[in-house]
């Protein structure tokens, strides 16, 4: 954690890492607990000893939906909740497969892709 | 503390306004109209109102705007917005303020012209770490929860559709309900898909509408023209704001608010004569019947089978037709509450207006009204009872 409030906060740091092509999450040094989304303290217990660690990128689809959209507006797209191997859950999109073919329990891998015009973590089906 | 509140306050008046479409009227006008109607129902003058509770998606400081429009000076007001559970939470706050002697007459109100103003109005800012993926909230969040529920418990789209079919059957008995006419499971599952597994008919209506109810302490309530309906139990809980942060997609905080509200009331699920739960989407009813203890987790699909929650079934649920078929002006909790109370008033012989055969539940004395806000996030449970249940 930064002691200087003029330094970037957790969200700014996360997005700066993303811009460098890195998917970083937080980890509490004392408890070992991983945290996502980026916060100033471990949710529920309040430890502030959060370091940044590279996410393994391995995950499992916890829930999935296909948002239906007219083709001329971009077509259908996937929105999923992914359980990261480290523990936290995040919203993301699964790519490389039809948006309505994503299944709960599917193993996925993180990529730095793009969403809403900015770098974003997206997932693709895991190989092997 | 909670026990001292039990039954100490009662609803003595209620009204709705502009249900369905109210072209030409703004949200404040509709809300004020409901307040005036509720006070007339209670035979309490506007000038006697010293407690005011309101939250909408149209007013950042709704209680202040409403007080100004009405020309009153509340001694205590609250505009806390926990979405569609706000009405129940405000009822609890009102009971606390009444019991503490801070106020003598509380009005709890909501108003919306979302339908004629151009469609669903979200009160929400974009969710950080979610917005970039384009969730179409609230429906995407509820769809994600539904997908998980179906995966864990083997529920089907037909099970979800049965909720909408039951709601429509109740609506068909209620002339005040916006949607009327037959509805089949096949029509629900065959409707245009919005966000898998939820189609258009798994979703609540988008209507205009306002609702208000008046609460006083039990002693004063006896002097009002209508049967006082007492707030026997109330509890709230929430644990997330974003669906990605919901601890379990298949268990809501109703599993906590429900038991606390029942404990305060001294009654349990089996004793509820009517059950009103916020059905923003078909999945809601299944989750809340489980979390509130009417059946075990994962068993709601079997519980509602055979028309158990439909007219003529074993448990009257969402007897106005619900948010799915009666009315849904954005934050529907106030209407849930009013239906719970009206069922008790009607059973006691009150003139609540015409309903089809079985639309009013005979001998209803205890009603549950459960509110839900955000994306299955805030939960508020209330238990309302006839004076004889005190």
Automatic annotation (TrEMBL), chain A:
Top-rank taxon: Bacteria
Limits of the ChsH2 C-terminal OB-fold domain: 52-111
Pfam families found in the cross-reference section? OB_ChsH2_C
> Which PANTHER family does the annotation name?
BLR3430 PROTEIN
Name of the protein described by the UniProt record: OB-fold domain-containing protein
Q: What is the lineage of its organism?
A: Bacteria, Pseudomonadati, Pseudomonadota, Alphaproteobacteria, Rhodobacterales
UniProtKB/TrEMBL annotation, chain B:
Domain named Thiolase C-terminal is located at: 236-385
Q: Which Pfam families match?
A: Thiolase_C_1
Q: Which residues cross the membrane?
A: none
Entries under InterPro entries matching the protein: Thiolase, Thiolase-like, Thiolase_C_2
Q: Which PANTHER family match?
A: ACETYL-COA C-ACETYLTRANSFERASE, NON-SPECIFIC LIPID-TRANSFER PROTEIN-LIKE 2
Name of this chain's protein: Thiolase
Question: Species name for this entry?
Answer: Paralimibaculum aggregatum
């Amino acid at each position: 954690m930064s002691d200087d409030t003029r330094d970037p906060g957790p969200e700014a740091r996360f997005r700066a890492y993303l811009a460098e092509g890195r998917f970083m999450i937080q980890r509490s040094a004392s408890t070992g607990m991983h945290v996502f989304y980026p916060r100033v303290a471990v949710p529920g217990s309040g430890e502030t000893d959060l370091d940044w660690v590279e996410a393994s990128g391995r995950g499992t689809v916890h829930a999935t939906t296909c948002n239906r959209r007219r083709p001329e507006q971009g077509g259908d797209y996937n929105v999923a909740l992914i359980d990261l191997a480290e523990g936290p859950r995040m919203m993301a999109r699964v790519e490389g497969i039809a948006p309505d073919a994503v299944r709960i329990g599917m193993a996925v891998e993180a990529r730095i892709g793009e969403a809403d015009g900015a770098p974003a973590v997206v997932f693709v089906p895991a190989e092997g | 503390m909670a026990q001292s509140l039990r039954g100490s306050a009662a609803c003595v008046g209620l009204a709705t306004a502009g249900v369905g479409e109210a072209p030409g009227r703004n949200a404040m006008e509709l809300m004020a109209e409901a307040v005036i109607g509720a006070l007339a129902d209670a035979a309490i003058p506007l000038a006697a109102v010293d407690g005011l509770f309101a939250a909408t998606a149209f007013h950042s400081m709704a209680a202040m705007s409403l007080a100004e429009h009405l020309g009153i000076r509340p001694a205590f007001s609250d505009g806390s917005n926990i979405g569609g559970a706000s009405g129940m939470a405000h009822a609890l706050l009102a009971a606390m303020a009444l019991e503490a002697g801070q106020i003598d007459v509380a009005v709890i109100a909501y108003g919306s012209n979302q339908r004629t103003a151009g469609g669903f109005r979200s009160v929400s800012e974009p969710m950080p770490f979610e917005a970039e993926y384009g969730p179409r909230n609230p429906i995407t969040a509820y769809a994600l929860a539904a997908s998980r529920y179906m995966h864990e418990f083997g529920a089907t789209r037909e099970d979800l559709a049965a909720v909408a079919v039951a709601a429509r059957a109740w609506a068909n008995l209620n002339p005040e309900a916006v949607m009327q006419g037959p509805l089949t499971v096949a029509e629900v599952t065959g409707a245009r898909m919005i966000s898998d597994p939820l189609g258009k008919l798994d979703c609540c209506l988008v209507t205009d509408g306002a609702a208000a109810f008046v609460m006083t302490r039990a002693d004063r309530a006896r002097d009002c023209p209508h049967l006082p309906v007492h707030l026997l139990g109330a509890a709230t809980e929430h644990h997330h704001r974003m669906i990605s942060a919901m601890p379990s997609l298949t268990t809501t905080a109703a599993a906590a608010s429900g038991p606390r509200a029942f404990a305060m009331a001294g009654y349990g699920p089996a004793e509820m004569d009517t059950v009103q739960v916020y059905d923003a989407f078909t999945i809601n009813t299944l989750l809340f019947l489980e979390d509130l203890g009417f059946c075990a987790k994962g068993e709601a699909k079997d519980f509602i089978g055979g028309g158990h929650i439909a007219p003529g079934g074993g448990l009257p649920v969402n007897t106005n037709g619900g948010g799915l078929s009666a009315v849904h002006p954005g934050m529907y909790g106030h209407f849930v509450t009013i239906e719970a109370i009206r069922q008790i008033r009607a059973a006691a012989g009150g003139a609540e207006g015409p309903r089809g055969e079985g639309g009013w539940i005979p001998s209803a004395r205890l009603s549950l009204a459960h509110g839900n806000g955000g994306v299955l996030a805030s939960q508020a449970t209330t238990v309302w009872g006839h004076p004889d249940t005190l």
